[in-house]
Specification:
By secondary structure, the protein is an alpha+beta fold. The protein has helices at about 50-70, 75-90, 175-180, 190-200, 205-215, 235-240, 250-254; strands at about 1-5, 10-20, 25-30, 40-45, 100-105, 110-115, 120-125, 130-135, 160, 170-175, 225-230.
């Protein structure tokens, strides 16, 4: 687990990834905090091969950099789309890469801006502990997610902005994590309730992250899973003056 404390005193980010049963980890997370906005991009390459991993990496890097400098995640994904299309056009047959991606940009004045193409999900946890799904994984009536270079419906990419005061914590998770949060056979607990139990009740964002990844790791068929827990510091400063300590996944298992 990595705990990142970017300048600007906006948020603390905790993130980690697991390969699971895959040969490669084709998820990629990139943070850019050098611009007016703090930006995080999470890309989920489609497949278990190097081309998917490469496209995911460059998608996340480009999208986060553009979103940080402009404060507009949509522009980040549009820039990434241009790269992916050019890269795949020049790639040998069978070496094309596909990736979904979600970008979060946080700015104290503009709020929390989101843009996504695909099923990397974002949930917001309110100061009262309520869990709100902030992204939609598919483009109805389609049952499969779009990706960075292909949109099923609407503008490319999907986007929304919410007030920074509405949430104390954000959870970003690739599909390899989100699949374990959906209702399971014999357990119809909604995803929002699972998120609330695992990540909404702990003041320590590192512990919340560890709980989520532990769920993915102990599944019967783990795949790539990447999770970021973003604590929006204004709410935490309002409720506590103690320093939030990072917690490792191993601590949850003790």
């Amino acid at each position: 687990m990595i705990a990142h404390h970017p300048p600007g005193d906006l948020a603390t980010l905790y993130y980690d990834t697991i390969t699971g049963g895959r040969r490669l980890n084709t998820d990629y997370l990139h943070i850019c905090d050098g611009g007016p906005s703090l930006a995080l991009a999470v890309a989920d390459g489609d497949g278990d091969h190097a081309d998917a991993a490469q496209v995911a990496q460059i998608t996340a890097q480009i999208a986060a950099a553009v979103a940080s400098s402009t404060g507009v995640p949509v522009e980040g994904l549009r820039a990434a789309r241009t790269y992916v299309e050019q890269r795949n056009m020049l790639a040998p047959a069978g070496r094309e890469g596909v990736s979904t991606a979600t970008v979060v940009a946080i700015n104290r004045h503009r709020g929390v801006s989101l843009a996504w193409a695909g099923d990397t999900a974002v949930w917001g946890i309110t100061p009262r502990g309520e869990v709100v799904a902030l992204t939609e994984p598919c483009c109805p009536p389609r049952s499969t997610p779009c990706h960075v270079a292909r949109q099923h419906a609407g503008l490319l990419p999907h986007s929304r902005t919410v007030g920074i005061e509405q949430f104390r914590r954000l959870v970003v998770a690739t599909s390899g994590m989100a699949v374990h949060l959906r209702p399971q056979p014999g357990d119809d607990t909604p995803a929002a309730d699972r998120i609330g139990t695992l990540a909404g009740t702990h003041e320590d964002g590192g512990y919340a992250l560890a709980q989520l990844l532990w769920l993915a790791e102990r599944s019967a068929d783990p795949g790539n899973a990447t999770v970021a827990v973003i604590d929006l510091l204004d709410h935490h400063r309002a409720t506590t003056t103690t320093t939030i300590a990072a917690t490792t996944r191993e601590d949850c298992l003790r």
